[in-house]
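Narrative of accomplishments. A recurring question from our advisory board has been how the design workflow behaves on a single, concrete structure rather than in aggregate. To address it, we present the structure tokens for one chain from the evaluation set, followed by the sequence designed for it. No filtering or post-editing was applied between the two.
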């Protein structure tokens, strides 16, 4: 819903692992490099431990993507497999032909022959075990026995265990100590720090096609960091909801109030050790967030189509537009009446014969982008998906700002056209910040952002 509003090509904060969104900060890149090195050098059993939502599955996906072709990987995602079935599961993943009703010993012989063939061909086989903390100790011991398969110089099979902190507890059991002794490398995926969360958020936004400055204010990042305890899955959930809340307010930056709304609507955002509270409170918070999103969506539809907002079965206060939105609509209407009634208005005279303010600014912007250095700064003010709505906004802006300093550029988000309005041309960031601080209050309320000509030019290439 909010992708076009922020100029995104795809969802930036989906919790499904996508290797295109792998974040190397927070020591993730270093651990990935170390894992690749350990596997390439035939080290025994490797262990990776991290809390729920810390990024273990993403790390595993990246390993499978980056390992050389000589490494064949087996992925075991079922932690509850019984010890007598684990060999069959591995053989099935390797697509090994087994005799009908093959017993454990027969499967072991077939597997060993296959591993020897792969070793002779200069290949390696590695098993990735997900959720290893949920595996019965007997199954872990069965996997440990596989590490005994070796030649005089090399292991025939490598094993990487991915698990939650409970895996370390299990490995401390006396009956599993032989497996513990075989672990040659142990890595821990710690939580992200506040600064790393800020880097993570803008990295994901960039990967999703965003070109502008940081969408999350420092105060909002601080709130998200505290609520998520640095766990990336939680960060994704809160970031998605916070962007949705900012979209509902028709703003272009996530502020603390949007982060608070996201936290209140999340299961992990409520401290469970607090005294008893009204069970209806989370429901009320969720309803409030949904009402805000719906109100923002319908108000944007109303502004784009020039129609009255549809009636909604919610309290009147919930669907009322903000003071800023009301003021802009009223001022825009008053401005149009004034311009049509006053013969002395200068705007139509400056637009050419047809008086099309949008086409005039599009042409001027094309020339501006072609002749400015990529480092030139501008101020992104607002955007719209409807040309008629944008023309109204431009006429209003022309009563507040110099028309020659207003730039308009088209992009495409998904299959939907989108047009953005920027103001000013500045040779350095300091001048741009100073000019942004002097904008009228109603425009400052939109959360304007600094952009570079280079970034804008890249964004316009989406239409090519």
């Amino acid at each position: 819903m909010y992708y076009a509003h922020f100029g995104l090509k795809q969802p930036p904060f989906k919790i499904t692992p996508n290797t295109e969104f792998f974040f190397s900060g927070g020591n993730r890149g270093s651990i990935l490099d170390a894992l690749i090195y350990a596997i390439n050098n035939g080290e025994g059993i490797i262990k990776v431990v991290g809390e729920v939502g810390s990024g273990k599955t993403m790390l595993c996906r990246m390993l499978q993507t980056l390992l050389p072709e000589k490494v064949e990987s087996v992925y075991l995602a079922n932690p509850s497999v019984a010890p007598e079935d684990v060999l069959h599961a591995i053989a099935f993943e390797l697509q090994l032909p087994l005799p009908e009703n093959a017993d454990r010993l027969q499967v072991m012989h077939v597997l060993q022959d296959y591993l020897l063939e792969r070793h002779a061909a200069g290949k390696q086989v590695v098993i990735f075990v997900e959720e290893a903390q949920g595996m019965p100790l007997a199954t872990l011991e069965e996997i440990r026995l596989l590490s005994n398969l070796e030649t005089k110089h090399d292991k025939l099979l490598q094993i990487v265990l991915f698990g939650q902190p409970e895996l370390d507890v299990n490995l401390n059991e006396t009956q599993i100590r032989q497996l513990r002794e075989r672990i040659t490398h142990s890595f821990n995926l710690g939580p992200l720090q506040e600064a790393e969360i800020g880097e993570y958020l803008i990295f994901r936004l960039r990967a999703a096609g965003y070109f502008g400055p940081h969408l999350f204010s420092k105060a909002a990042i601080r709130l998200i960091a505290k609520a998520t305890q640095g766990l990336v899955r939680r960060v994704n959930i809160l970031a998605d909801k916070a962007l949705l809340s900012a979209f509902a307010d028709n703003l272009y930056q996530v502020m603390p109030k949007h982060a608070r709304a996201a936290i209140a609507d999340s299961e992990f955002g409520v401290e469970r050790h607090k005294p008893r509270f009204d069970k209806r409170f989370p429901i009320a918070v969720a309803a409030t967030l949904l009402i805000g999103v719906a109100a923002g969506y319908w108000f944007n539809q109303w502004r784009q189509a020039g129609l009255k907002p549809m009636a909604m079965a919610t309290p009147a206060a919930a669907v009322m537009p903000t003071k800023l939105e009301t003021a802009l609509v009223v001022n825009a209407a008053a401005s149009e009446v004034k311009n049509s009634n006053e013969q002395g208005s200068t705007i139509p005279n400056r637009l050419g014969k047809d008086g099309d303010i949008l086409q005039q600014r599009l042409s001027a912007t094309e020339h501006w982008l072609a002749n400015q250095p990529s480092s030139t700064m501008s101020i992104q003010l607002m955007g719209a998906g409807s040309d008629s709505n944008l023309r109204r906004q431009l006429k209003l802006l022309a009563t507040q700002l110099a028309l020659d300093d207003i730039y308009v550029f088209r992009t495409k988000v998904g299959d939907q056209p989108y047009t953005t309005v920027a103001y000013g041309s500045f040779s350095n960031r300091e001048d741009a910040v100073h000019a942004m601080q002097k904008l009228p209050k109603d425009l400052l309320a939109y959360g304007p952002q600094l952009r570079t000509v280079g970034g804008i030019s890249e964004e316009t290439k989406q239409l090519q």
